[in-house]
Amino acid sequence: MFVRAFACGAVLCAAALAQEPVPRFGTTVVIPGGLRGVIYHIPHGTSRLPDFTRLKPVGSIYTSSLNVPPQGFRDGFPGVTKRFEWFAIDYTGRFWIEKPGLYTFVLTSDDGARLYIDDQLIIDNDRQHEPEDRTGSLRLARGVHRIRVPYYQGPRLQVALVLEVMPPGETRRIFSTDDFKPPPHPEDWPEEEPDRNPETPLSH
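and the corresponding structure tokens:
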């Protein structure tokens, strides 16, 4: 197993670091309450998200948000088992909703990705493509909710994986588990039944 924290290329990194934090897919350091991403190698020529049950994991990484805007593939993920292409990451986690209502999510990816909440498919942005946004909405009750974002990178050139959220009455922002932390004592969290009628996902 050879997994390190993601970082950008050495030449471009110097200028970027002076301006703002470098977007990352994750770190090998466990982030309590964050997202866990399980990394897989996928066959060359893969054109859609793989069946992860048929693949062997090669490592795990952790993050509180998915915020890798469209960029050159060499700057997005050096360090993931030395691969720049043909790999997949299956992110899972939980988050707490304090304010019930209609939540809108925007998923940007290159290549394919999907968003599941409480095992419901909310956004389907699968298949091999350039950076593309897709939007989906659903009503969330107060309590704990499960989130899953499977993602794969096919051939080189560009990479992108960004998940944004617009809570009811608020502006759109990067989804972070840091913003949706539950009250203390996890054993006391109520896990309420979510609305099973999400709005139809829309493409930008």
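(Above: one complete record from the training split.) The radius of gyration is 17 Å.
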